[in-house]
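Why does this matter for the project? Reviewers at the last site visit asked to see concrete outputs rather than summary tables. In response, this paragraph embeds two records directly. Each consists of the residue sequence and, immediately after it, the corresponding structure tokens. Nothing has been edited or filtered.
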Amino acid sequence: MNARSLSIFNAREFFLGQDEWVFLFEVVVRCFISFIIVLLALRLTGKKGVRQLTVFELVIILTLGSAAGDMGFYKDVGVLPAVLTIVSIILFYKLVTWLLIKSDKFERMIEGKPVTIIKDGRYTEEVVKNENISFDEFFMELRLAGIEHLGQVKYAILEVNGDVSVFKKPPDEIKPGLHILPDKIKKFYTDYYPADGLYSCVCCGYTEDKIQGPITPCKDCDGAKWSEGCASKWY
């Protein structure tokens, strides 16, 4: 690196910007204040983990983080205006929470409503028609609940906070269903059935025995994508 390049690269400006060294101490103080305020704000939500947050609460947390961050490292952002912003957000959260308790319609508008994904081992009509739903994470939740195929599921409900509630069938009520193990669900057929056996429609979960040969449309949803089915009776 020559002298000219050294003159172009200003180390002090690179590390401090336009501020003085003393501002580093101020950053530490600002961050401590913002940390305490955001910690108190999180305590007021009454939540113990991110998985318990609804979409509305997640927006509140992100807004608090933005306000606290600005106060932490922007010198021209005063501490009092930032604190007032955070307090206002908390009060807004309390007001909306009160309205959620008072009005079911308002609650559905802000937080949405639980969606039944699986009913009696099959995707519900609402899910079949929704092409924007990704099932990878949903299948993961089912596998964590000990589910091997959809025929073992009586109900699976996607809650407003993203959790999945799974209600299993008794062993004597289990029917064949769509395999959801990773090495099975990723392998599907669109042209022909490679062998006689049990196959499930990937689009709706309909399951029946097929013979080797060309693919036929699903009797339930007209889908033409099939995967291996499973008839296991045990969890």
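We now turn to the second protein, recorded in exactly the same manner.
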Amino acid sequence: MKSLFFSRGLAGLFTVLALLLSGCGYNDFQRLDEQTKSAWSEVLNQYQRRADLVPNIVATVKGEANFEQETLTKVVEARAKATSMQVTPETLNNPEAFAKFQAAQGELSSALSRLLVVTENYPNLKANQGFQDLRVQLEGTENRITVARNRYIQAVQAYNVLARSFPNNLTAMVFGYTVKPTFSVQNEAQISTPPTVDFNKK
């Protein structure tokens, strides 16, 4: 008999806990946390896609006599730095690690932009179909990065609003749901203007 009452008591307790958790945003935290992780994975996929293009671009440009070595070196070094960083889902909860990753990707973006500007001074490169194809792929990848970053920013915004709102902020404290870092204001302005290339320029 005691066992029956105990079992019913436990069942009742779990029911109450379930209602409390659902009412204080616990399930929403689960859903939005997964959304941010999914959006972040897509950002990483597109950054990796860009990094994979760099060796072919560098190899093609190297074939041009007297090309600015310093520009190439900066691209290679920026790629090495960006791809050497260990990035995991936990990076989303570490503002310092996130900032370092963001800075490294920003350096690669700047180096690639400089490279594309410099190549305009080399008619042979502009006439090289292989190089032009790589530039088209790079531009497409930059656009995909823009879309992926925007989706991530939106996912993090929804999560952070939940984490800061009462009474969900109490749930966040209990279960360790901290506010997630996002791209800086400066970077958010830049994502709408990825490196552009005028393919018709002669």
